[in-house]
Design a protein that fits this description.
The complex is a heterotrimer of chains A (297), B (275) and C (531). With 297 residues, chain A is an all-alpha fold. Chain A has one domain: MetI-like (MetI-like fold). Helices cover 76% and strands 1% of the residues of chain A. A two-stranded antiparallel sheet of chain A has the order 1-2. In chain A, helix 10 packs antiparallel against helix 13. Chain B starts with a helix and ends with a helix. In chain C, the strands form three sheets. A five-stranded mixed sheet of chain C has the order 2-1-3-10-4. Chain C has a four-stranded mixed sheet with strand order 6-7-5-8. In chain C, strands 9-11 form a two-stranded parallel sheet. The longest helix of chain C has 40 residues. Chain C is 46% helix and 10% strand. Chain C folds into two domains: 191 residues, Periplasmic binding protein-like II (D-Maltodextrin-Binding Protein, domain 2), CATH 3.40.190.10; 240 residues, Periplasmic binding protein-like II (D-Maltodextrin-Binding Protein, domain 2, 3-Layer(aba) Sandwich). Classes of the chains: A mainly alpha (297), B mainly alpha (275), C alpha/beta (531).
């Protein structure tokens, strides 16, 4: 009895060491390429540091003060909430919906799911160019359709529509990824609870909402986590299409950072902005992972 | 009853059709436009039937577009990044999943949080490291840069997957006299292979699509396809024909790869959900 | 199960390897014939002068003092070296050039074998977008590196900030052991040399003029000829765009065309005028034309538009001229083609080429695209003139750039880079790369009969070979001191530019009045510059 309890423990300890050595290379590589940049960001955020300077000067809280009192900074965060929030919700709804549709479709499921998956393989920079082409007032096909429907609007040239347009670009590109993950989740839903629901006389909607969705909640959170990390950081489509305009309508925090870092070459302020983004991403990540853990328990 | 089922199916197919139109019409227009001259591309409504011209593709592959070089670089960088990240990620993910480390949760959160770093803010420090190591403009440098976002992703995914592979398997193998390391490679890795494939495809995709890192860390010899695309937008106009042709070609390798392993991808991604 | 998975994976890997190997072989076989095709296509079979330009085989007899590059033609200054100069003394050095993808870059890249064969120096010309050039040059200087030896020195985004990192070219030009600039500095168009070459004072020369896009007015001559009489009847004056046109007339004409197009009288175009009014650098450019012609400017420091100034001084946008200009600009844009707020210069050019608009203030380099029937429906129907005048003169925005040498390169690399600069900006080289849509930056090149014919005779063979010539009579007029407008050259310009076009974009979206917009820009830029 006692021996039996000790043996696995011993083996566990032995494994432990091997596993430590297995994990170590990854940790070293990761630390080498991320720790220095991280501390550099903290250092730079307290320095007056422009790329054209010979020597950065200590600036105390100046960068933080300038950043946190900059109206554009807060407006950019506000627009980011709309952009990321709108984008994520739409992707989630559409992605889950399409996954459920694919799950229920009787024939050609493989063909359909492959076709629906295509946009995710188009590089974001191509997506931006393609949508710029589709929405152009002179020769854009989508713009032409909108005009045929009787709406004479400048989609990328009007502050009210530009944001909608860039959200839709993100949704177009990334919904398939959500679909893929959710579909993977759906295929693990076991038969028994569904059969039990059938016996209880549940209809299709009840089965979806009461049985299937709760069982794949975890996959949905995984999809959300992956997407939320990237939607804050990636601005390729905005860079190619609206460049933050018109009237700043599409200047998200990612684009704002890019402007400060690349166009203004103000490394100090860029570091401060970058750190705020890192904090928000981390908090979001913590939240989603907490949800994940709660699901597991 | 029969009729009801029939009408439900019709509705499902109709919805499916809508989704396909939404997802595919931009791609179809891209494909069609790549076969037109710029003047014809601009025609509204677009012509569905036209005499195709392969001028854009010819220019892209054999003209000044110099596309084969970009394609080679892109393939090389994304495949090598994927191999490196997967190799480290599979080992590390297993280590983390089984190690029973005291602060496992913190380690795993640190790992995933490194993927969240805003790229424009970390470019300067990375540049400083790379220029010390003489890596600016090299394929190695770009691979290392991609490792910053692909390694955490691979580690995180693999940790999840390995947690779902029952520990009995490797323990049984060890009792049979296998070394720990051999047990890992021979038993655990093959069992988790669908998950590995799914992770590989996503890593490949992230590397293949990246523009920002590539724009800074490459030079003329090592530029990748997204850079080639950005070069089509110049002071003197956008080369739409080539942009459309490049867009069409850029999907193809990913598409082939996706098709080959699609089944495993769905299975792999679902592994994490199996309790 | 596992087996089949591994089979598929290995098939995939094999496929990748195959593609990779196919690419590399395709790449190497390709590079030779593309260059060959370009060289032979250059001005082929045109006038008698073009005979010299096809000379890419390069008579590179090593050790010769004079011009090893070939391609010199009668009338141009010669590339000359000191007695006994060895053009191949830097053989084996590799030079990296970073430049925006503009016409001279692709032209030089296509003919680079001429330079490489003559000097034995290997040159990599890396063409990227301007923001990437700016970022990479900044990173290179910041790390005191010379990953790039030769840098495209945008006067506003690079030179104004980083002049101290460039080699003083006067020292190289005056070095008796090195060749000097053929034709001398005075052969460069002077206003372009000053804005592109100096910073703060004219003591040090940092870069040589490389390209020179300038905003002038493109118009549809078919429309203006066809409806000339009708307009004369209704409005009582000759509406043909030219030096005498004012902005008020421009507005009246554009509005008239809008109305007639709506009534169905004019069918050739849909709108009178189009603008590059996206929230983008282009909007600042488009507005500056109007601002300058109303007598306004951005800052008060003297010479800020040519040699530049570290401190731009106080903003002048609160002055009445500026506010008047902003009011006119807002009024003009309210009748412009509605797509204007979506367009940068490219979008505007595409709309013009698609036949949507009759008048467009546009960069002269688009002339080549407008004459290309595969990209334009208006080939043969476009004329160019300088921009309309305002109450206080005229402003044609200049947007040219120079190239300079990174001072952190080694001594030999700097001298090798100097040879490249000499060759790349030499009149005979400029003549050779015309077919890339290049605009010469040298007076002497404009004197050539070939160029004169192309510019003055749209029916000539010369014009067909070099359709960019359509805009060059007007561009040359625009470069004159009284007509050109040059934006402030000051280190904080990228930030100031962003403030300007962002606030202007808000004005065009109806979020703020023209007067408030000017005040807001003044307030923000004064805070930024500390004035």
């Amino acid at each position: 009895m006692e021996q039996a309890a000790i043996r696995p423990l011993k083996r566990r300890a032995k494994w432990n060491r091997t596993e430590f050595w297995m994990l170590l290379p990854s940790v070293i590589v990761l630390a080498a390429i991320t720790i220095f940049p991280f501390f550099f960001m903290i250092y730079a955020s307290f320095m007056d540091y422009r790329l054209d300077m010979d020597h950065p000067r200590f600036a105390g809280l100046e960068n933080w003060q300038n950043t946190l009192t900059d109206e554009t900074f807060w407006q950019s965060w506000g627009r980011t909430v709309v952009y990321a929030g709108g984008g994520l919700i739409l992707q989630l709804l559409l992605g889950t919906g399409i996954a459920l549709l694919l799950y229920h479709i009787p024939k050609f499921r493989n063909l359909f799911s492959t076709l629906v998956m295509l946009p995710v393989f188009v590089a974001p920079i191509v997506t931006g160019l393609l949508w710029r082409f589709l929405l152009d007032p002179t020769y854009g096909f989508y713009h032409w359709i909108v005009r045929q429907l009787g709406f004479d609007v400048q989609i990328l040239g009007d502050p009210n529509f530009a944001m909608l347009a860039v959200i839709f670009m993100d949704v177009w590109e990334w919904t398939p990824l959500v679909t893929l993950i959710v579909l993977a989740g759906l295929q693990t839903v076991p038969e028994e609870p569904l059969e039990a629901a059938d016996v209880d006389g549940a209809n299709a909607w009840q089965k979806i909402f009461l049985v299937m969705l709760p069982m794949i909640r975890r996959m949905i959170v995984v999809a959300l986590l992956i997407r939320s990390m990237d939607i804050l950081r990636y601005v390729d489509t905005i860079v190619i299409t609206t460049e933050g305009g018109p009237a700043d309508a599409t200047k998200t925090i990612g684009y704002y950072l890019m402007q400060v870092a690349f166009r203004f070459q103000d490394i100090g302020s860029a570091a401060a902005v970058g750190l705020t983004m890192l904090v928000v991403s981390t908090l979001m990540g913590r939240f989603f992972i907490k949800v994940l853990k709660a699901e597991e328990a | 009853m029969q009729l009801k089922k029939y009408s439900i199916n019709t509705a499902l197919y109709a919805l499916m059709l809508l989704c396909l139109i939404w997802a595919l019409s931009p791609i179809l227009i891209m494909l069609m436009s790549s076969l037109k001259t710029q003047v014809n591309m601009f025609e509204m409504p677009p012509k569905l039937f036209f005499a195709p011209t392969f001028e854009s593709y010819r220019e892209m592959f054999f003209g000044r577009g110099d596309f084969p070089r970009f394609l080679k670089n892109s393939l090389m960088v994304s495949i090598l990044t994927t191999i490196v990240c997967l190799f480290l990620g599979v080992m590390g993910g297993f280590g983390l999943a089984r190690g029973g480390f005291k602060r496992e949760k913190d380690i795993s959160f640190w790992i995933i949080s490194t993927r969240m770093a805003p790229i424009p803010a970390v470019i300067l420090p990375l540049y400083l490291i790379f220029s010390k190591l003489q890596l600016i403009g090299t394929t190695t440098g770009l691979i290392l840069a991609y490792t910053t976002f692909n390694l955490p992703f691979a580690l995180w995914m693999m940790t999840t997957f390995f947690k779902d592979v029952p520990a009995d398997l490797e323990e049984a193998a060890m009792i049979d006299g296998c070394g720990k390391f051999r047990a890992f490679w021979r038993i655990v890795v093959p069992t988790a292979s669908p998950g590995i494939v799914a992770t590989a495809v996503l890593c490949l995709m992230f590397a293949w699509n990246d523009y920002l890192f590539a724009s800074i860390f490459t030079n003329r010899q090592t530029q990748t396809i997204p850079i080639a695309v950005s070069l089509l937008v110049s002071q003197s106009g956008i080369k739409w024909g080539q942009a459309m042709a490049t867009g069409t070609v850029i999907i193809t390798p990913m598409l082939i790869c996706g098709l080959l392993v699609r089944k495993y991808m769905v299975r792999g991604l679902s592994m994490g959900a199996v309790k | 199960m596992t087996r089949s998975w591994f089979t598929k994976l290995s098939v995939l890997v094999m496929a990748c390897v195959l593609v990779l190997s196919a690419c590399s072989s395709g790449g190497s076989s390709k590079s030779g014939n593309a260059d060959g095709a370009n060289v032979s296509g250059n001005n082929a079979g045109g006038s008698d002068q073009s005979g010299g330009s096809g000379n890419s085989g390069g008579g590179s007899s090593s050790g010769s003092t004079d011009d090893p590059f070939g391609g010199w033609i009668e009338g141009l200054p010669k590339i000359e070296a000191p007695e006994g100069f060895d053009w191949r003394q830097f053989e084996g050095i590799t030079l990296n050039v970073i430049t925006e993808n503009t016409p001279p870059s692709s032209g030089l890249a296509a003919h680079i074998d001429v330079f490489e064969q003559a000097t034995g120096i290997k040159v990599n010309i890396e063409q990227v977008n301007l923001d990437i050039v700016v970022e990479k040059a900044g990173l290179d200087f910041n790390a005191r590196n010379a990953n790039y030896h030769i840098i495209y020195a945008d006067p506003y985004q690079i030179l104004a900030k980083q002049a101290q990192h460039f080699v003083d070219l006067n020292e190289l030009n005056n070095d008796p052991t090195l060749p000097s600039i053929p034709g001398g500095l005075e052969d460069f168009i002077q206003s372009q040399l000053i804005v592109g070459g100096y910073m703060g004072n004219t003591d040090h020369l940092y870069a040589l003029p490389y390209d020179n896009p300038t905003m002038i007015l493109a118009y549809r001559k078919d429309v203006f000829e066809k409806y000339k009489d009708l307009f004369m009847q209704e409005k009582g004056y000759d509406w043909t765009p030219g030096p005498e046109m004012t902005w008020d007339q421009y507005y009246e004409i554009a509005e008239w065309i809008n109305r007639k197009a709506k009534e169905g009288v004019i069918t050739e175009v849909k709108y009178g005028t189009g603008h590059q009014a996206k929230q983008h650098d282009s909007l600042m450019n488009d507005f500056s034309n109007v601002l300058a012609s109303f007598g306004g400017d951005y800052f008060e420091a003297p010479n800020i538009g040519d040699i530049g100034a570290e401190n731009p001084g106080k903003s002048k946008l609160t002055e009445p001229e500026a506010i008047e200009a902003a009011e006119f600009y807002a009024k003009l844009l309210s009748i412009a083609a509605p797509g204007s707020t979506t367009w940068d210069w490219t979008g505007l050019a595409e709309a013009f080429a698609a036949g949507e608009i009759a008048l467009a203030p546009e960069w002269h380099e688009f002339a080549g695209m407008f004459e290309d029937p595969s990209k334009s429906r208006v080939a043969g129907k476009v004329s160019w003139t300088i921009l309309p005048k305002g109450p206080k003169g005229r402003g044609n925005m200049y947007g040219g750039t120079s190239i300079g040498i990174n001072k952190y390169a080694s001594e030999d690399e700097i001298r090798a880079a100097w040879l490249f600069l000499i060759w790349a900006t030499a009149p005979q080289t400029q003549y050779m790369i015309l077919d890339a849509g290049f605009t010469p930056t040298r007076y002497s090149v404009y004197q050539l009969p070939y160029i004169q014919t192309a510019i003055n005779d749209p029916n000539s063979q010369e014009f067909k070979e070099w359709p960019l010539a359509a805009s060059l009579a007007a561009a040359q007029e625009a470069w004159k001191e009284e007509n050109v407008y040059m934006r402030p050259k000051t280190p904080l310009w990228p930030q100031i530019d962003t403030i300007i076009y962002t606030e202007l974009s808000k004005m065009l979206a109806g979020r703020q009045s023209p007067a408030d917009t000017m005040k807001e820009i003044a307030k923000q830029s004064d805070r930024l510059t500390g004035n």
